[in-house]
Write a structure and sequence with these properties.
alpha/beta, D-Maltodextrin-Binding Protein, domain 2, 315 residues, 21% strand, globular, 2 domains, 10 strands, ten-stranded mixed β-sheet
Length: 315
Protein backbone atom coordinates (compact mmCIF):
# COMPACT_ATOMS: atom_id res chain seq x y z
CA UNK A 1 0.00 0.00 0.00
CA UNK A 2 2.81 2.40 0.90
CA UNK A 3 4.53 1.69 -2.42
CA UNK A 4 1.19 2.30 -4.21
CA UNK A 5 0.67 5.66 -2.45
CA UNK A 6 4.22 6.69 -3.18
CA UNK A 7 3.67 5.90 -6.88
CA UNK A 8 0.45 7.94 -6.90
CA UNK A 9 2.21 10.95 -5.35
CA UNK A 10 5.03 10.72 -7.89
CA UNK A 11 2.52 10.44 -10.76
CA UNK A 12 0.55 13.44 -9.47
CA UNK A 13 3.75 15.45 -9.14
CA UNK A 14 4.75 14.59 -12.68
CA UNK A 15 1.29 15.58 -13.97
CA UNK A 16 1.47 18.92 -12.20
CA UNK A 17 4.92 19.50 -13.64
CA UNK A 18 3.53 18.97 -17.13
CA UNK A 19 0.29 20.90 -16.64
CA UNK A 20 1.47 24.01 -14.82
CA UNK A 21 3.32 25.56 -17.78
CA UNK A 22 0.23 25.00 -19.94
CA UNK A 23 -1.98 26.71 -17.38
CA UNK A 24 0.45 29.61 -17.13
CA UNK A 25 0.45 30.00 -20.90
CA UNK A 26 -3.34 29.97 -20.98
CA UNK A 27 -3.47 32.56 -18.20
CA UNK A 28 -1.10 34.82 -20.16
CA UNK A 29 -3.12 34.63 -23.37
CA UNK A 30 -5.26 37.65 -24.23
CA UNK A 31 -8.33 37.59 -26.43
CA UNK A 32 -7.54 39.05 -29.85
CA UNK A 33 -9.61 42.01 -31.02
CA UNK A 34 -9.06 42.99 -34.66
CA UNK A 35 -10.29 46.42 -35.80
CA UNK A 36 -10.92 46.68 -39.55
CA UNK A 37 -10.33 50.28 -40.67
CA UNK A 38 -9.59 51.68 -44.15
CA UNK A 39 -6.75 53.12 -46.20
CA UNK A 40 -4.11 55.23 -44.48
CA UNK A 41 -5.01 58.29 -46.57
CA UNK A 42 -8.58 58.31 -45.23
CA UNK A 43 -10.05 58.83 -41.77
CA UNK A 44 -10.97 55.28 -40.71
CA UNK A 45 -7.36 54.21 -40.23
CA UNK A 46 -6.30 57.01 -37.82
CA UNK A 47 -9.57 56.63 -35.93
CA UNK A 48 -8.86 52.92 -35.64
CA UNK A 49 -5.35 53.53 -34.33
CA UNK A 50 -6.64 56.00 -31.73
CA UNK A 51 -9.34 53.56 -30.62
CA UNK A 52 -6.88 50.65 -30.47
CA UNK A 53 -4.56 52.64 -28.20
CA UNK A 54 -7.46 53.51 -25.90
CA UNK A 55 -8.72 49.92 -25.67
CA UNK A 56 -5.22 48.54 -25.10
CA UNK A 57 -4.66 51.02 -22.29
CA UNK A 58 -7.90 50.37 -20.41
CA UNK A 59 -8.80 46.78 -21.36
CA UNK A 60 -5.50 44.89 -20.95
CA UNK A 61 -7.25 41.53 -21.36
CA UNK A 62 -7.64 42.31 -25.07
CA UNK A 63 -4.84 42.03 -27.64
CA UNK A 64 -5.87 44.78 -30.07
CA UNK A 65 -4.73 44.79 -33.69
CA UNK A 66 -5.49 47.41 -36.38
CA UNK A 67 -6.00 46.11 -39.91
CA UNK A 68 -5.69 48.39 -42.92
CA UNK A 69 -8.37 47.63 -45.53
CA UNK A 70 -9.99 49.05 -48.65
CA UNK A 71 -13.02 50.18 -46.63
CA UNK A 72 -16.56 49.33 -45.62
CA UNK A 73 -17.52 46.38 -47.83
CA UNK A 74 -14.27 44.55 -47.11
CA UNK A 75 -14.66 45.37 -43.41
CA UNK A 76 -18.08 43.73 -43.25
CA UNK A 77 -16.74 40.67 -45.06
CA UNK A 78 -14.03 40.46 -42.41
CA UNK A 79 -16.62 40.59 -39.64
CA UNK A 80 -18.71 37.98 -41.45
CA UNK A 81 -15.73 35.61 -41.67
CA UNK A 82 -14.62 36.24 -38.08
CA UNK A 83 -11.33 37.82 -39.20
CA UNK A 84 -12.30 41.11 -37.51
CA UNK A 85 -14.33 41.81 -34.38
CA UNK A 86 -15.25 45.45 -34.96
CA UNK A 87 -15.05 47.69 -38.01
CA UNK A 88 -15.63 51.14 -39.44
CA UNK A 89 -18.33 51.43 -42.12
CA UNK A 90 -20.80 54.03 -43.28
CA UNK A 91 -24.52 53.69 -42.63
CA UNK A 92 -25.23 52.98 -46.29
CA UNK A 93 -22.98 49.91 -46.41
CA UNK A 94 -24.18 48.66 -43.02
CA UNK A 95 -27.81 49.00 -44.14
CA UNK A 96 -27.11 47.00 -47.30
CA UNK A 97 -25.45 44.23 -45.28
CA UNK A 98 -28.32 44.00 -42.80
CA UNK A 99 -30.88 44.08 -45.62
CA UNK A 100 -29.05 41.60 -47.86
CA UNK A 101 -29.05 43.95 -50.84
CA UNK A 102 -26.65 45.38 -53.42
CA UNK A 103 -23.19 43.87 -52.78
CA UNK A 104 -24.67 41.70 -50.02
CA UNK A 105 -27.50 40.28 -52.10
CA UNK A 106 -28.35 36.82 -50.73
CA UNK A 107 -25.50 37.23 -48.23
CA UNK A 108 -27.16 39.07 -45.38
CA UNK A 109 -24.88 39.96 -42.47
CA UNK A 110 -26.33 40.63 -39.02
CA UNK A 111 -24.53 43.81 -37.99
CA UNK A 112 -25.04 45.84 -34.87
CA UNK A 113 -23.88 49.39 -34.25
CA UNK A 114 -21.55 50.08 -31.35
CA UNK A 115 -21.35 53.82 -31.98
CA UNK A 116 -22.31 56.48 -34.53
CA UNK A 117 -19.08 58.42 -34.92
CA UNK A 118 -19.21 61.28 -37.41
CA UNK A 119 -20.78 62.40 -40.69
CA UNK A 120 -18.99 61.02 -43.73
CA UNK A 121 -19.05 63.62 -46.52
CA UNK A 122 -18.71 62.68 -50.18
CA UNK A 123 -15.99 64.63 -51.96
CA UNK A 124 -15.92 64.82 -55.76
CA UNK A 125 -12.61 66.39 -56.69
CA UNK A 126 -11.36 67.68 -60.02
CA UNK A 127 -9.07 70.42 -61.34
CA UNK A 128 -10.41 73.91 -62.04
CA UNK A 129 -9.18 73.53 -65.63
CA UNK A 130 -11.12 70.29 -66.28
CA UNK A 131 -14.39 71.93 -67.33
CA UNK A 132 -16.27 69.56 -64.98
CA UNK A 133 -18.98 71.44 -63.06
CA UNK A 134 -21.56 68.72 -62.36
CA UNK A 135 -21.70 64.92 -62.11
CA UNK A 136 -23.22 64.73 -65.60
CA UNK A 137 -20.08 66.42 -66.92
CA UNK A 138 -18.19 63.24 -65.98
CA UNK A 139 -19.58 61.51 -69.05
CA UNK A 140 -16.71 60.38 -71.24
CA UNK A 141 -14.17 61.03 -68.47
CA UNK A 142 -11.78 58.78 -66.56
CA UNK A 143 -12.34 58.81 -62.81
CA UNK A 144 -11.60 57.01 -59.57
CA UNK A 145 -14.62 56.11 -57.45
CA UNK A 146 -12.75 54.74 -54.45
CA UNK A 147 -10.99 51.48 -53.75
CA UNK A 148 -12.76 48.29 -54.78
CA UNK A 149 -14.95 47.14 -51.91
CA UNK A 150 -15.22 50.57 -50.31
CA UNK A 151 -18.29 52.48 -49.18
CA UNK A 152 -17.20 55.29 -51.51
CA UNK A 153 -17.52 52.97 -54.50
CA UNK A 154 -21.07 51.98 -53.51
CA UNK A 155 -22.28 55.55 -53.09
CA UNK A 156 -20.52 56.76 -56.24
CA UNK A 157 -22.28 54.08 -58.28
CA UNK A 158 -25.62 55.15 -56.82
CA UNK A 159 -24.90 58.78 -57.67
CA UNK A 160 -24.10 57.79 -61.24
CA UNK A 161 -27.43 55.97 -61.48
CA UNK A 162 -29.34 59.01 -60.16
CA UNK A 163 -27.65 61.19 -62.78
CA UNK A 164 -28.24 58.69 -65.58
CA UNK A 165 -24.64 57.53 -66.04
CA UNK A 166 -23.55 53.94 -66.60
CA UNK A 167 -20.01 53.11 -65.32
CA UNK A 168 -17.95 51.31 -67.95
CA UNK A 169 -20.18 52.66 -70.69
CA UNK A 170 -20.47 56.40 -70.04
CA UNK A 171 -17.25 56.79 -68.07
CA UNK A 172 -14.09 54.85 -67.20
CA UNK A 173 -13.42 53.94 -63.58
CA UNK A 174 -10.24 53.07 -61.73
CA UNK A 175 -10.36 51.50 -58.23
CA UNK A 176 -8.01 53.83 -56.35
CA UNK A 177 -7.81 54.88 -52.71
CA UNK A 178 -7.53 58.56 -51.73
CA UNK A 179 -3.74 58.89 -51.87
CA UNK A 180 -3.53 57.10 -55.21
CA UNK A 181 -6.47 59.13 -56.57
CA UNK A 182 -4.86 62.43 -55.59
CA UNK A 183 -1.58 61.40 -57.23
CA UNK A 184 -3.40 60.26 -60.39
CA UNK A 185 -5.31 63.54 -60.66
CA UNK A 186 -2.12 65.54 -60.21
CA UNK A 187 -0.47 63.46 -62.97
CA UNK A 188 -3.45 63.88 -65.37
CA UNK A 189 -4.12 60.14 -65.28
CA UNK A 190 -7.74 60.73 -64.22
CA UNK A 191 -10.12 63.66 -64.59
CA UNK A 192 -11.80 63.46 -61.17
CA UNK A 193 -12.15 61.28 -58.11
CA UNK A 194 -14.67 60.46 -55.39
CA UNK A 195 -13.90 59.90 -51.73
CA UNK A 196 -16.29 59.75 -48.78
CA UNK A 197 -14.84 60.76 -45.45
CA UNK A 198 -15.11 63.16 -42.56
CA UNK A 199 -13.54 66.49 -43.44
CA UNK A 200 -10.84 67.45 -43.96
CA UNK A 201 -9.35 64.54 -45.91
CA UNK A 202 -5.57 64.49 -45.59
CA UNK A 203 -5.02 63.32 -49.19
CA UNK A 204 -7.20 66.15 -50.55
CA UNK A 205 -5.58 68.71 -48.26
CA UNK A 206 -2.14 67.70 -49.52
CA UNK A 207 -3.36 67.89 -53.13
CA UNK A 208 -4.80 71.37 -52.60
CA UNK A 209 -1.34 72.57 -51.55
CA UNK A 210 0.22 71.34 -54.78
CA UNK A 211 1.41 74.62 -56.37
CA UNK A 212 0.92 73.26 -59.92
CA UNK A 213 -2.85 72.74 -59.68
CA UNK A 214 -6.01 74.19 -58.18
CA UNK A 215 -8.73 71.78 -57.12
CA UNK A 216 -12.49 72.17 -57.50
CA UNK A 217 -15.15 70.29 -55.51
CA UNK A 218 -18.32 69.31 -57.38
CA UNK A 219 -21.71 70.17 -55.81
CA UNK A 220 -24.09 67.17 -55.58
CA UNK A 221 -26.43 67.73 -52.59
CA UNK A 222 -29.47 67.73 -54.89
CA UNK A 223 -29.13 63.95 -55.29
CA UNK A 224 -29.88 63.19 -51.63
CA UNK A 225 -33.67 63.10 -51.97
CA UNK A 226 -33.60 60.69 -54.92
CA UNK A 227 -31.03 58.47 -53.23
CA UNK A 228 -33.20 58.13 -50.11
CA UNK A 229 -36.24 57.31 -52.22
CA UNK A 230 -34.34 54.50 -53.94
CA UNK A 231 -32.14 53.10 -51.18
CA UNK A 232 -33.60 53.97 -47.79
CA UNK A 233 -33.30 56.79 -45.22
CA UNK A 234 -29.53 56.79 -45.28
CA UNK A 235 -28.32 60.10 -46.64
CA UNK A 236 -28.41 63.71 -45.50
CA UNK A 237 -27.62 67.02 -47.15
CA UNK A 238 -24.18 68.04 -45.99
CA UNK A 239 -21.66 70.74 -46.76
CA UNK A 240 -17.97 71.22 -47.16
CA UNK A 241 -17.36 74.64 -45.57
CA UNK A 242 -15.46 77.27 -47.52
CA UNK A 243 -11.70 77.15 -47.00
CA UNK A 244 -11.74 73.54 -45.83
CA UNK A 245 -9.09 73.08 -48.54
CA UNK A 246 -6.63 75.57 -49.96
CA UNK A 247 -8.16 77.54 -52.82
CA UNK A 248 -11.71 76.43 -51.98
CA UNK A 249 -13.35 79.81 -51.54
CA UNK A 250 -17.03 78.81 -51.43
CA UNK A 251 -19.11 76.31 -49.49
CA UNK A 252 -19.99 73.15 -51.44
CA UNK A 253 -23.23 71.22 -50.96
CA UNK A 254 -22.59 67.50 -50.62
CA UNK A 255 -23.95 64.17 -49.46
CA UNK A 256 -23.51 63.10 -45.85
CA UNK A 257 -23.82 59.59 -44.44
CA UNK A 258 -22.84 58.67 -40.89
CA UNK A 259 -19.77 56.59 -40.12
CA UNK A 260 -20.35 53.79 -37.65
CA UNK A 261 -18.33 51.44 -35.52
CA UNK A 262 -20.04 48.07 -36.00
CA UNK A 263 -19.73 44.46 -34.92
CA UNK A 264 -21.42 41.13 -35.45
CA UNK A 265 -24.56 40.53 -33.43
CA UNK A 266 -22.54 37.73 -31.80
CA UNK A 267 -19.92 40.02 -30.24
CA UNK A 268 -19.82 39.56 -26.48
CA UNK A 269 -22.11 42.12 -24.83
CA UNK A 270 -19.56 43.05 -22.17
CA UNK A 271 -16.92 43.82 -24.81
CA UNK A 272 -19.36 45.98 -26.79
CA UNK A 273 -20.39 47.79 -23.60
CA UNK A 274 -16.79 48.43 -22.54
CA UNK A 275 -15.78 49.76 -25.97
CA UNK A 276 -18.70 52.17 -26.15
CA UNK A 277 -18.13 53.22 -22.54
CA UNK A 278 -14.47 53.99 -23.26
CA UNK A 279 -15.33 55.95 -26.42
CA UNK A 280 -17.55 58.34 -24.48
CA UNK A 281 -15.61 58.45 -21.21
CA UNK A 282 -12.39 59.30 -23.06
CA UNK A 283 -13.86 61.28 -25.93
CA UNK A 284 -11.55 64.26 -25.33
CA UNK A 285 -8.51 61.99 -25.51
CA UNK A 286 -9.74 60.46 -28.77
CA UNK A 287 -10.50 63.84 -30.33
CA UNK A 288 -6.91 64.96 -29.74
CA UNK A 289 -5.79 62.11 -32.01
CA UNK A 290 -8.67 62.25 -34.50
CA UNK A 291 -10.58 65.52 -34.81
CA UNK A 292 -13.35 63.76 -36.75
CA UNK A 293 -14.59 62.22 -33.50
CA UNK A 294 -15.54 65.64 -32.13
CA UNK A 295 -19.09 65.03 -33.45
CA UNK A 296 -19.71 62.13 -31.03
CA UNK A 297 -22.99 62.64 -29.15
CA UNK A 298 -24.47 60.08 -26.79
CA UNK A 299 -28.00 61.44 -27.19
CA UNK A 300 -28.06 60.98 -30.99
CA UNK A 301 -26.76 57.42 -31.14
CA UNK A 302 -29.98 55.56 -31.97
CA UNK A 303 -31.07 58.05 -34.65
CA UNK A 304 -27.67 58.41 -36.31
CA UNK A 305 -26.84 54.69 -36.26
CA UNK A 306 -29.94 53.79 -38.36
CA UNK A 307 -29.23 50.08 -37.85
CA UNK A 308 -29.94 48.42 -34.48
CA UNK A 309 -27.55 49.13 -31.64
CA UNK A 310 -25.71 46.18 -30.12
CA UNK A 311 -27.26 45.21 -26.75
CA UNK A 312 -23.98 46.13 -25.06
CA UNK A 313 -24.14 49.60 -26.64
CA UNK A 314 -27.82 49.88 -25.66
CA UNK A 315 -26.80 49.22 -22.08
Amino acid sequence: MNRFLTSLIKLAGASMFVMLPQLAAAADQRAELVIATGTKGGTYYPMGVALAELISKHLPSLDVKVRETSGGVENIRLIQSGAAAIAFVNVSTAWDANSGQDKFKNQRVELRAIAALSPNTMHIVTKDTSGIKTITDLKGKKISAGAAGSGTETIANRLFKVYGLQPGQDLSMLPLGPDESAAALAADQIDAFFFGSATPVSAISALSHNPKIKITLIEHAAAVKKLNMNYGPLYQVGRIPARTYKGQDIEVGALDVWDLLVASDKLDGRVAYDIMRLIFEYKDELVKKSQNLATLRLETQEKSSVITLHPGAQR
